[in-house]
Amino acid sequence: MTSKTTTKAVRVKTARPKVPRPQPDLSFETALGQGRLVCGIDEVGRGPLAGPVVTAAVVLPAGGLPDALARAINDSKALSLRAREALEPEIRAHALAVALAEASAAEIDALNIHKATLLAMKRAYEALPGEPPAVALIDGKFKPDLSCLMEAIVKGDGRSQSIAAASIVAKVARDREMMRLAELHPQYGWDRNAGYPTPEHLEALRRHGVTPHHRVSFAPVRAQIERAG
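The structure corresponding to this sequence follows.
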């Protein structure tokens, strides 16, 4: 009697090497600027139920930033709060120009969030001190009404260093504004959720109602108004 031995193949799992996240650089600025001033423009706060949408415009030097700062700048969503707070003053110190602007909750309700965002971008561009940039790099698919050459770049905050810098400046400014508003209305947790529709915020909206800083055109806020009669 013969015995059969069966050999089972053993699969060895190998860890996939981590692919480094692409770093935003000055490729767009160099290609489109050609010696002219270029600014990056980004927004923060399209999705929240409360607070303004905030935009920033940043002009970086054509020769680039110090290496350590350039390596640290990225899409604000990919950075920690501590990193953003540390980078924001460094960006301001080394940029040729920085400007902030916003569209209020009331303007968002009157215009809709898309048009209000483009309006805030236009305000940020026009608020830049000194010579107006000849080229504006815009994060996303849509362009505001600016009197210069524009390039809309999808996911630009992860591709263009100017847009990434603008995203950090705008994010820090909006977070600080929501912290200020949280002191006036502490029950909504805006110091933790920045006005986004978290379960905590939605529950507070049901319990405490709508504030002047809520966007009444957004469905959860509108529903609360209708429930309240």
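Strands lie at 38-44, 53-59, 97-103, 135-139, 149-153.
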